[in-house]
Design brief:
The complex is a heterodimer of chains A (510) and B (498). Chain A has 510 residues and is of the alpha/beta class. Chain A has helices at 3-6, 11-19, 25-43, 53-65, 108-115, 158-165, 182-188, 222-232, 250-260, 281-296, 312-327, 348-359, 362-375, 381-404, 427-432, 438-443, 473-491, and strands spanning 46-49, 77-81, 119-124, 171-175, 191-194, 215-219, 267-271, 300-304, 407-411, 447-454, 461-468. Chain B is of the alpha+beta class. The longest helix of chain B has 20 residues, at 243-262. The chains are: A alpha/beta (510), B alpha+beta (498).
Chain lengths: 510, 498
């Protein structure tokens, strides 16, 4: 097998090859670094390449050679969203204010992946502090969609999704506050899951909105995501909101789902409010086909209504900015990060102000202002207070829905990838891209996206979202794996099989 | 600018003072409120910190369970109800003493609320102070402003930040408005804070050293014209870090506000800084009600929901209430009102208690702690408890009781014990300070003195006993103070009757 073929293999295939000593982790890692060197000019998925990657791979190879059993993914390279802290690489959240900052600790999820023998390839691009749906708000330039490099790869985790879809990494870390794993997965034809809130530790994940943020896996198939999920999730004493729960193996659930190939006895809820106006015809058509496919596979389809989802986006854009305005207060030039002094005799307030003016981009400033306003005396009840009430109502909607259905499905995003520059000056249009994904974060439930085909009108990938009840992550993976198998059978392969593998270099990628 | 003050009695004639007190207690847990960084005093700046204390990106707070238990115990001692469900909130404001630019505190759901504390004044009068709430929060870092004239951030050339104190667990105890204190407003305020100190010491949850900021008091004072129902505008005096200052700061604010109000002026709602050196207050930042901390529930932490079992266990372990404890001590020690008042004012009840527990008589323990030790402490500008331990006092007093040294020599030994840390016996031995009990040496000295004062023997025989003084003094001088005066008198009188 030639080295260049390795990058098209899945994580589980690579792990098996490495375990069987058909190939070394160092070779696999080099193949991916070579692929990055080849395509980064067009894709720009990475903000930083790990210079120690090959050495880390060799260390894993040595352990494997000595017979040490590390993990099912030992030796597999991984891309890390640059919102996660890494001791050996800058951790910037794609912001100028953290340019070059190297934390003194790894995020717990990163530390666990290293212990499992995963090899970090580098840090992937995102919208600044994960605020956005396109990576256009990255301070270091947008990433590009491998299906069409004039288009966005989604956001905020567009870098991780693009890296996976462009075969630069078999798996990647994402983080999802309102859809930042699922929407990029949907528009790049990749797979991404957001665990139950509290499933993965947030320690070392640079906070956007603490009550919504959750780290999750990005991959090219469900099994890889599940294997990766098993590696880094689970209770962490350093995060008080992480759940101390005996989680079942997601990989086992995924394998079971793929093997069964049937949905008999499963009640699948179709959320009325997530399949109507504003959805692209090709997205709706593919979703209806999927419902038919599920019915044919024995699922009982029930229509469920979640009336308060109509308010979810509005409430989300109060809660998120409120928490973000406080979480981002620490970027003040006093202890770390960028420092801008307007003049020699500047006061502390002037330095803080000038630093934040220069260090934050337009979307971050917009949300800090919005959040500060929403928390202000006299406005708190009307904005933050009522948004929290909406959140409770959304949770009830889900409870009612899960009384009627085992899992819920919807399109993962209302449209396919839009063009770079199309919505960057229209925040509302950008925000509405997340209407399908936001409710899951508001309720803390697990949700993921898998590709379900290419839209007729533009030939771009479309994702289906699968949502399950709190702590039912295993059911989500199982159903996702079954649907993936049914779709592959129907289409004679996966969506990513049809993805382009070389890209035209477009101007302004970097 | 010097404030105009109204005579205190005159002020009280025209206005009724209303006070309210906020006391911050630093808990002495091993680690900080929300991180595993050590909770220690006096370390090199920025060495007792973690990523949480300085708010590094990605860091998360984790609640110190011991601090929660301490807070519950304190709440119970304050007679408060303990909330079955309490939560943390973020208090947002930009200031470099907070690494995150917000303080994790409690807002609408404090751990303890609705209590009452019995406070006894030095004259025995009892006051029941109503407690509104006690809540948990984290302390801020310490700023040192360099280069300015005032030592404040305004006008400073630069400022240094030490985050060692950032994140130290605090409980803030807030009283309801206290009415009817009249001329005793300052005394009540001071006695209340002393009671809180005794309480946290008895609970063992704080070192309660005011000079180190373990215990900090903000005194709110407002005046209202006699007969008025409406509360006046209040000021909040900060930086009062001794019991005596609390009393004086309250009196000062009453006099200052009265002068302003009587001349038709208005009180500005503001914080005021107490200046120990001049015994005055000066204006700090204005504290309008418009100040907006944008409180919201802390999303990084779960609510605190202590089990009923835990609360009852802690309740069962509570020590005796300070006022009750004091009454019991006064009775068992047999002190007069005046003697006990001295003890209270000196703030050495715990020291006397410990000294008595080690075997010293209450009278001797009182004598040491309220006179010589207190004098030395004042002289050196430290607290009595920092100077010497109850064990050292007991050691020293035992030497006096056995007759090994005189009272006067004992004072010299005390200073040497403090400075060298050696035991009383070691010092007496090495410095040769033991009482001379050799009769022949004393007799030789007496003979020498009599020879120099030939008329004394005659006078004594005539019954003029005061004449003995000159001889005893002369002998003591010759023996460098190491003689027992009673013994000298005895030997001298024996010679008279020879």
């Amino acid at each position: 097998m030639s080295a260049s073929e390795l990058v098209f293999k899945s994580a589980s295939e690579l792990a098996t090859l490495i375990r069987d000593k058909q190939v070394s982790s160092a070779e696999v890692t080099r193949a991916h670094l070579d692929r990055m060197a080849e395509v980064e000019g067009a894709i720009h998925a990475f903000l930083h390449v790990n210079e120690g990657a090959v050495d880390a791979a060799k260390a894993v190879d040595a352990k494997i050679a000595s017979g040490e059993k590390i993990s099912e993914l030992a030796g597999v390279p991984v891309a890390i969203k640059d919102i996660l802290c890494t001791v050996d690489m800058p951790s910037t959240a794609a912001s100028r204010i953290l340019e070059g900052w190297i934390p003194p600790y790894d995020a717990t999820v990163v530390a666990r992946s290293r212990e499992a023998g995963l090899v970090p390839l580098g840090k992937t691009n995102l919208d600044e502090f994960a605020m956005g749906s396109s990576t256009e708000f990255s301070a270091y330039g947008p990433s590009r969609n491998p299906w069409d490099t004039d288009r966005i790869p989604g956001g905020s985790g567009g870098g991780s999704a693009a890296a996976v879809a462009a075969f630069e990494a078999p798996i990647a870390f994402g983080s999802d506050t309102g859809g930042s794993i699922r929407q990029p997965a949907a528009v790049t034809g990749s797979v991404g899951f957001k665990p139950t809130y509290g499933g993965a530790s947030r320690f070392g994940a640079i906070a956007l909105a603490s009550s919504l943020d959750q780290v999750g896996p990005v991959s090219r198939n469900v099994l890889d995501a599940a294997l990766f999920h098993d590696v880094f999730t689970g209770y962490d004493a350093k995060d008080s909101t992480s759940l101390n729960y005996n989680w079942p193996s997601m990989a086992e659930a995924a394998r079971l789902g793929a093997k069964e190939g049937s949905l008999k006895g499963l009640r699948i809820g179709v959320v009325k409010e997530l399949n109507g106006e504003g959805f692209q015809p090709g997205v709706k058509a593919l979703f209806n086909e999927l419902v038919e496919l599920a019915t044919a596979a024995g699922a009982e389809i029930v229509e469920v209504s979640a009336p308060h989802f109509d308010y979810a986006t509005a409430a989300y854009y109060l809660i998120l900015p409120a928490e973000a305005s406080s979480n981002l207060a620490k970027y003040d030039a006093v202890r770390f990060g960028l420092r801008v002094a307007p003049n020699e005799a500047a006061t502390i307030e002037e330095v803080m102000s000038a630093t934040r003016e220069a260090g934050f981009g337009p979307e971050v400033k917009r949300r800090i202002i919005l959040g500060t306003y929403a928390l202000s005396a006299g406005y708190y009840d009307a904005y933050y207070g009522s948004a929290q009430q909406v959140r409770t109502l959304i949770q009830r909607d889900f409870e009612n829905a899960f009384a009627k259905a085992d899992v819920l499905i919807s399109p993962a995003a209302p449209t396919t990838a839009f063009k770079i520059g199309e919505r960057v000056n229209d925040p509302m249009a950008m925000y509405l891209n997340d209407i399908t994904t936001i409710p899951a974060n508001m309720a803390g439930i697990p949700a993921g996206s898998i590709p379900m085909g290419l839209a007729d009108e533009d030939g771009l990938p479309v994702g289906v979202q699968i949502m399950a009840g709190i702590k039912k992550d295993d059911l989500m993976y199982k159903v996702a794996a079954t649907l993936e198998a049914l779709l592959a059978e129907k289409h004679g392969g996966s969506v990513l099989d049809k993805a382009p593998r070389s890209y035209a270099l477009k101007g302004g990628a970097k | 600018m010097k404030d105009k003050l109204m005579d205190f009695d005159k002020a009280l004639e025209l206005f009724e003072p209303v006070i309210g007190l906020e006391v911050h207690v630093e808990l002495n847990t091993k680690t900080k409120m929300f991180s595993a960084a050590p909770n220690i005093f006096g370390a090199e700046p920025n060495t007792a910190i973690s990523e949480v204390c300085i708010g590094l990106p990605g860091s998360l707070p984790v609640v110190n369970g011991k601090a929660v238990e301490y807070s519950i115990s304190l709440g119970l001692a304050l007679g408060c109800k303990i909330a079955e469900h309490s939560s943390f909130a973020r208090k947002n404001y930009f200031y470099p003493d907070l690494g995150k630019n917000y303080q994790i505190s409690q807002y609408d759901e404090p751990i303890a609320y609705d209590g009452e504390v019995e406070v006894e004044l030095a004259d025995g009068e009892i006051w029941n102070i109503p407690i509104e709430r006690a809540h948990m929060e984290e302390d801020a870092g310490k700023l040192t402003h360099v280069g300015g004239a005032t030592g404040r951030i305004q006008g400073a050339e630069y400022s240094l930040v030490d985050y060692n104190r950032a994140g130290v667990p605090l409980v803030e105890i807030v009283t309801r408005p206290i009415f009817g204190t009249e001329g005793k407003a300052g005394e009540v305020a001071s006695a209340y804070v002393q009671t809180i100190r005794d309480m946290v010491l008895a609970l063992g949850i704080s070192d309660a050293r005011m000079e180190r900021g373990n215990l900090r008091c903000d005194a709110n004072v407002s005046l209202r014209p006699r007969g008025s129902e409406k509360l006046g505008t209040r000021t909040e005096t900060k930086n009062v870090n001794s019991f005596r200052s609390i009393e004086r700061a309250v009196r000062y604010e009453i006099q200052r506000q009265a002068a302003i109000l009587a001349s038709g002026g208005n009180i500005i709602q503001e914080t005021r800084h107490w200046h120990e050196d001049t015994s005055t207050t000066s204006a700090g930042r204005p504290k309008s009600d418009a100040e907006d901390y944008r409180y919201f529930p802390e999303p990084d932490l779960l609510p605190i929901q202590p089990s009923a079992e835990l609360v009852e266990k802690l309740r069962a372990e509570l020590p005796e209430a300070p006022a009750k404890h004091r009454r019991r001590l006064k009775e068992s020690w047999g002190f007069t009102d005046l003697e006990f008042r001295d003890v209270v004012n000196a703030g050495v009840i715990p020291q006397i208690e410990a000294t008595v527990a080690l075997g010293t008589s209450p009278a001797q323990a009182r004598k040491w702690w309220t006179s010589e030790i207190l004098r030395l402490a004042n002289e050196r500008g430290v607290e009595a408890e920092e100077l010497v331990t109850p064990a050292q006092v007991t050691d020293l007093d035992a030497q006096v009781a056995s007759g090994a040294i005189t009272d006067k020599i004992a004072r010299t030994v005390l200073v040497k014990m403090i400075d060298s840390g050696k035991s009383a016996a070691e010092i007496i031995e090495s410095e040769g300070l033991a009482v001379v009990s050799d009769d022949s040496a004393l007799e030789a000295a007496i003979d020498q003195a009599l020879a120099e004062n030939p008329d004394v023997l005659e006078k004594l025989r005539e019954g003029k006993l005061q004449a003995a003084g000159a001889i005893i003094g002369s002998v003591m001088k010759a023996m460098a103070g190491k003689a027992d005066a009673a013994k000298v008198r005895e030997l001298l009188m024996a010679k008279v009757s020879e």
